[in-house]
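Researcher: Good morning. I'm working through a list of sequences from a screen, and I'd like to move beyond sequence-only analysis. For each chain I'm collecting a predicted structure so we can compare shapes side by side. This is the next one on the list. No need for commentary yet; just the structure.
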Amino acid sequence: MPELRLVTRLVIAACLVLVTTTGYAQRERSTEPTTGIRFQPPTAVALLHATVVVDPQTTLEDATILIEDGRIQRVGAQVQIPPGYEVIDCEGDWIYPAWVEPLLEIECAADPSNLAHWNAQIRPEVQASLTANVNQERVGQLRQAGFGAALLAPEGGIMKGQSCIITLGSQDLAQSMLATDVAQHIRLYPERGSRGSYPNSPMGAMALVRQVLSDAAWYRDAQRIAGVTPGLNPPARDAALEALQPLLAGQQVAILDGTNELYALRCDRIAREFGLRAIVRGSGREYRRLDQLAATGRALILPLDFPDAPRVRTVAEAADASLQELMHWYLAPENPARVQRAGIPFAFTSDQLEAPKEFLNRVRLAVKHGLEPTAALAALTTQPAELLGIGDQVGTVSVGKLANLVRATGDVMDAQTKVKETWVRGERFRWEEQPEQDLRGTWDLGAITVR
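Model: Good morning. Structure tokens for this chain:
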């Protein structure tokens, strides 16, 4: 009998532990039946009494948001709550559209032996939607920083491949997919450590990109002519050149890496030469050539990796700090404001930051150095959504769009404000510690009743 009582106590303890943890732990989806008490997140939620920032120009006071099946159903100050909705009081809090990450480079599991082009740095047929190795730790960090969606781009190479856009919830890659084959990603300089292979210089990389794009245009024309000329065989199938056809046809955008302001201008020249729709991945040094960059009409993806102050505590350290280094340290936080005043459209990326948790602080620093708060918010939400062609899905708190939201303690441009929650497709992620669950009461565990 003592053994039976011991077993009974262990069963009760295990069940109580299950009750306290259910609802807070994020679990992987499985087809295995749930054992014990099952937590089923509500599909209909009402967020009440919040200050809702619908978009950078529109703010609603004491507003309500109705969410059902992952989408926004109603937004407004006088909204009637239908039966069956879970009600969450957000009094004193601000709700924003979740941020959109316009460029997150990731490793793609592409087999080098299966690449179509003779040069291994040319891989436009690689698709992130099929081969992405998603770093779930990084996804969690982005989500905690306020991001609800991100563009995943293949890393490595000169023509790196095609990106996709996903939402940053707990779903797997296929379920979280918003768009596939969004952009071709190109850089005009070789990888580091490529001295033993071609190309090993910026001039060689530029020549190779031009040659590949010219080959793709020839491939398109040769196929068209062969299709209307009896007896003329089309060129042999080439997966790399075929993958570039949507880009040449204007159906796909090119995101070109501008490692500095001069490379950004070279990106524009390549895009003009081949008639490409293009976005330039900026360097943070655009302030050096603002007029020329504005004249291109290209949108920029701006990093926020502002440099730390140079070490000048001793005479030797001060002598080692160049004037260029000191000037960039001083001017880098002003770069977004100067880009805005030049009339250049831009979106912010966290891609060069060591930790996404620093992202919002960097945005605030840019605002402190002259960037308008509405422009800063647009660079987090509406601008990247529109640039990536997903403005109908995310970027504003609007009826019909995905319930990708940020709940904060106040105005996010205020340094004291904290992000409390991120919602992705209506899935709630809390970042503040929750009070311990009170287990006092009567629990019915089937065969055993515990008081």
